[in-house]
Amino acid sequence: xxxxxxxxxxxxxxxxxxxxxxxxxxxxxxxxxxxxxxxxxxxxxxxxxxxxxxxxxxxxxxxxxxxxxxxxxxxxxxxxxxxxxxxxxxxxxxxxxxxxxxxxxxxxxxxxxxxxxxxxxxxxxxxxxxxxxxxxxxxxxxxxxxxxxxxxxxxxxxxxxxxxxxxxxxxxxxxxxxxxxxxxxxxxxxxxxxxxxxxxxxxxxxxxxxxxxxxxxxxxxxxxxxxxxxxxxxxxxxxxxxxxxxxxxxxxxxxxxxxxxxxxxxxxxxxxxxxxxxxxxxxxxxxxxxxxxxxxxxxxxxxxxxxxxxxxxxxxxxxxxxxxxxxxxxxxxxxxxxxxxxxxxxxxxxxxxxxxxxxxxxxxxxxxxxxxxxxxxxxxxxxxxxxxxxxxxxxxxxxxxxxxxxxxxxxxxxxxxxxxxxxxxxxxxxxxxxxxxxxxxxxxxxxxxxxxxxxxxxxxxx
Length: 462
Ligand SMILES: *Cc1c(COP(=O)(O)O)cnc(C)c1O
Hints:
Layout: E1 3-5, H1 15-21, E2 30-32, H2 40-44, H3 51-63, H4 69-81, E3 91-93, E4 98-102, H5 112-127, E5 134-139, H6 143-152, E6 158-165, H7 171-178, E7 185-191, H8 194-206, H9 208-213, E8 215-217, H10 224-240, E9 248-253, H11 258-268, E10 273-280, H12 285-292, E11 294-296, H13 316-323, H14 328-341, E12 343-345, H15 348-354, E13 358-362, H16 365-379, H17 385-395, E14 403-407, H18 415-422, E15 443-446, H19 449-459
Parallel strand pairs: 4-14, 5-6, 5-8, 6-7, 7-15, 9-10, 9-14, 10-13
Antiparallel strand pairs: 1-2, 3-4, 11-12
Helix pairs in contact: 3-4, 3-10, 4-5, 5-6, 5-10, 6-7, 10-11, 13-15, 16-17, 16-18
The protein binds pyridoxal-5'-phosphate.
Pyridoxal-5'-phosphate is lined by residues 110, 112, 143, 253-259, 307-308, 386, 408-409.
């Protein structure tokens, strides 16, 4: 399988190359040259497989020659063996047609584990036998940092430097990062806010001299391998609900458009997906884009669902590319315009291509809380607020097929918001129980380029 950039001018790469590169050199994102498809019989054949077996089957055409089938199966067994539920992503029934797909049984209680556990193993495998040492630099406001650290802790040929804003992540989020004491993990508390931390990371990628000293890679950047790993649970869930004989809809709490794009890939591969519901909070750029073609940045408002508080949804570019007839040059011009002005209109062709599969909903705090209370009262399920946004959208969708809401975080990661909505305070699962007794290690640095780059120069294990 070959990978092309959505902006048409970066080198074409194989799976290994696209995984290590992350972002394409022309500013675009890598996508497979063609969408592999499964016949209805092949989809039926997934029914008896475990999650890890399903994962290897779905990923194989994307991986191509970069791994043998046995190597791919071994990586899937390792990645998904670390989840606390035997089904990895179990389904829970809420009422006749409403279902939850629990994606939070990984080591850090967030759905990002599903993709990052696999990505960490892929990095390690692809670096083995080379003299490349990868330096992952990232900024986090909470969840991505801990999932990325867990995924690469102790892995050969990789260092990770994760910047978080000092005092501005929750204690559980900080401890999930800082109690990982592997020598290749470096937590940096920046004396500033998340935007300062993110600006420092951008500056490092743009600094020629620094980038030449390190082989930089990003976990925030939108790596194709992350999306590929997320396609799996759409198949796994739909098959258990009767696909390919039955059509299934999915409601997805959306920020960067990665998770719901994976659902689009599943549909392109032949899964009978009735609808993908893009659920946003009041930061509704995607809802405006999908409902009226208006893709324009607003001011970010802080909400109880921080992972959806975004101005720009990077992965939306991948959908626009397909909806544009895969014209990289035209999309590059359209995206350049957006980067200049902060606004663009979808073309009619793009809107028409997107409309049959996608709907969207903007869910405010009241509707989110109402959905969380309904789940607690009617189905005995305590949801995290991100999941609450998507469930609200699912219940209002009026679809007459099974609707699966993706549950993206364990409620214990957002105890205050859950208590406000439902009156009950979720307990941390036992497997992270001693988090508050463990030793922490992190370095506090001023929010300056020189301080952070000097620290990274001095601490990589080279
Ligand atoms: C990252 C995240 C999301 C948003 O997912 P995208 O792929 O960025 O759209 C939703 N919920 C939670 C809990 C997350 O961590």
